[in-house]
Amino acid sequence: MNQKELKELIEFIIEKDIAEFEFERGDMKLRLKRSCAEPHLDARFFAAPASQAVAAPAAAGAPAAAAATPAPSTAAAPASASVETAEEAGLHIIRSPIVGTFYESASPGAPPFVKAGDTVAVGQVLCIIEAMKLMNEIESDFTGELVTRYVSNAQPVEYGQPLFALRSP
């Protein structure tokens, strides 16, 4: 798929007000997703042999394609500042290894895996991140006291986004 075809596809999706679109051809997979609140397309190419996503080029006059880093928001600014403060204070930050949806417990109504003040051991399950209908248990890579949880239950998370801050024992 070349840039002209991609531009035509994006314009078609905007014109028909399509919220989400997936396309596969050979080892290339294209997924476009746009929010109804504000015109925004999330366009990324995924090739089977490659392990990194490459952002699709934005068409002139069309909404910008999402890059690997999300646009800064007012809610993200205080969180990033608190992460920087935590790192300066010598806390260990556990980050999301994948993109998905954060869950604090194994099932709705169950107690969370961990809460602030708990002592966490290496290998202990901290949360679950659902990605592509798979529930991925996220384990601690550090032993210490859980000081902060940066995300809410059922919140979408990005790769590398801070999840927890731990203090050494």
Description of the structure:
With 169 residues, the chain is α+β, with helices and mostly antiparallel strands. 15% of the residues lie in helices and 35% in strands. The protein contains two helices and twelve strands; from the N terminus they run αββββαββββββββ. It has a four-stranded antiparallel sheet with strand order 1-2-3-4, with no helix packed on it. Strands 5-12-10-7 form a four-stranded antiparallel sheet, covered by helices on one side.
The outline comes out as elongated
> How does the major sheet shape up?
4 strands, antiparallel
Helical run tally: 2
Order of helices and strands: HEEEEHEEEEEEEE
Binned, the helix content reads: 10-25%
Properties at a glance:
4-stranded antiparallel beta sheet; alpha+beta; 2 helices
SSE layout:
Blueprint: H1 3-15, E1 20-25, E2 28-34, E3 41-47, E4 54-55, H2 76-88, E5 92-95, E6 100-103, E7 119-120, E8 125-131, E9 134-139, E10 144-149, E11 156-157, E12 162-167
Antiparallel strand pairs: 1-2, 2-3, 3-4, 5-12, 6-8, 6-11, 7-10, 8-9, 10-12
